[in-house]
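Exercise 7b. C-alpha cells:
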C-alpha cells in the first residue's frame, strides 16, 4: 500500500515547521552555561534543551496529527491508530552541543507502515536545514536562501572519497576496529564530522561516505529519505536499506559496493 501523496506532504510541512521551532529552542541554551548535563542509564548525556525541544516536537505533531504514533529519544512512545509513525531526535550530537560545537541537529522522520517517507534535518547552530519526501527529491536551505536541490557527489572511486564517522571508539567497542582501519586506508580523507552533520555532507555532495557502527532508530529515521532522495544510499553494514538494524552506512551510491566489500567481510 502506498501513502497518499497529500498526507505525506502535509506531514512534511509540519516536520519542517516543528523541526525548525525545536531547533530554535536549542539555541536558547547553545554556547551557554545555564544548563546541567545529566547522564542517562546508557551513560549518554542529556540536557534540558533535549527535553524541551522534544516536548515541543511532540506537542506540534500531536496537535496536527493526533492519530499518528510518536517515538522519541527522551520520552515514552505514543501509540497511534494511523499507519504513520513519527521518529524524532531533538538533539543529535548532544556531546557536540554541550561543547559549543554547532555540528548538531534536530531530526524528524516519518514512517508509513515501516517505510521512511519524510525526513527533516535542522542545524540550528549553522542556520541550515535539509528535507525530503519520497519521490519529491531532497532539498537544502542555507539561511534565508531559497531551497535548492540536494545531490550527492559523482565521485566513483573510494580512494578519492571523504569518509566521515561519529565516534572512532564505537568501531572498536563493536568489534569493528579492523573495518575502520581498512576504510581509512581505502579512502582519501577521514574526518570525525559526525552525527547527522556527516550525513548532511553526503546528501549535499561534500562527502562520499558516512558510517556509524552504532545507531538508534531515532538517529537514522530522518536520514534514509534524505540520502536516497539526494541520489545516494542508506543501508546497514550488509547493504540492506533499513533504519532498524542498529547501524548505518550512507554513500553517494557510486562507492557503495566498494564500502560493502569491506564492511560485509568483517
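Sequence design result:
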Amino acid at each position: 500500500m502506498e501513502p497518499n501523496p497529500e498526507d505525506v506532504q502535509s506531514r512534511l510541512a509540519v516536520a519542517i515547521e516543528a523541526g525548525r521551532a525545536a531547533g530554535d529552542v536549542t539555541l536558547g541554551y547553545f554556547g551557554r552555561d545555564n544548563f546541567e548535563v545529566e547522564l542517562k542509564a546508557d551513560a549518554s548525556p542529556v540536557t534540558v534543551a533535549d527535553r524541551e525541544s522534544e516536548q515541543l516536537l511532540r506537542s506540534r505533531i500531536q496537535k496536527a496529527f493526533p492519530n499518528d504514533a510518536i517515538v522519541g529519544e527522551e520520552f515514552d512512545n505514543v501509540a497511534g491508530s494511523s499507519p504513520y509513525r513519527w521518529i524524532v531526535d531533538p538533539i543529535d550530537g548532544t556531546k557536540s552541543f554541550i561543547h559549543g560545537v554547532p555540528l548538531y541537529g534536530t531530526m524528524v522522520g516519518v514512517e508509513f507502515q515501516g517505510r521512511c517517507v519524510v525526513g527533516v534535518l535542522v542545524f540550528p547552530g549553522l542556520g541550515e536545514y535539509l528535507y525530503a519526501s519520497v519521490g519529491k527529491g531532497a532539498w537544502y536551505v542555507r539561511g534565508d536562501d531559497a531551497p535548492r536541490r540536494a545531490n550527492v557527489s559523482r565521485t566513483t572511486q573510494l580512494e578519492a572519497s571523504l569518509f566521515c564517522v561519529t565516534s572512532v571508539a564505537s568501531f572498536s567497542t563493536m568489534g569493528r576496529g579492523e573495518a575502520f582501519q581498512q576504510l581509512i586506508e581505502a579512502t582519501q580523507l577521514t574526518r570525525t564530522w559526525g552525527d547527522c552533520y556527516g550525513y548532511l555532507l553526503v546528501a549535499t555532495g561534500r562527502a562520499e561516505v558516512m558510517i556509524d557502527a552504532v545507531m538508534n532508530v531515532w538517529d537514522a529515521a530522518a536520514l534514509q529519505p534524505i540520502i536516497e532522495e539526494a541520489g545516494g544510499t542508506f543501508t546497514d553494514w550488509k547493504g540492506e536499506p533499513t533504519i532498524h538494524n542498529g547501524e548505518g552506512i550512507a554513500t553517494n551510491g557510486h562507492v557503495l559496493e566498494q564500502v560493502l566489500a569491506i564492511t560485509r567481510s568483517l
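Instructor comment: The chain has nine helices and 14 strands. The chain has a mean pLDDT of 95.
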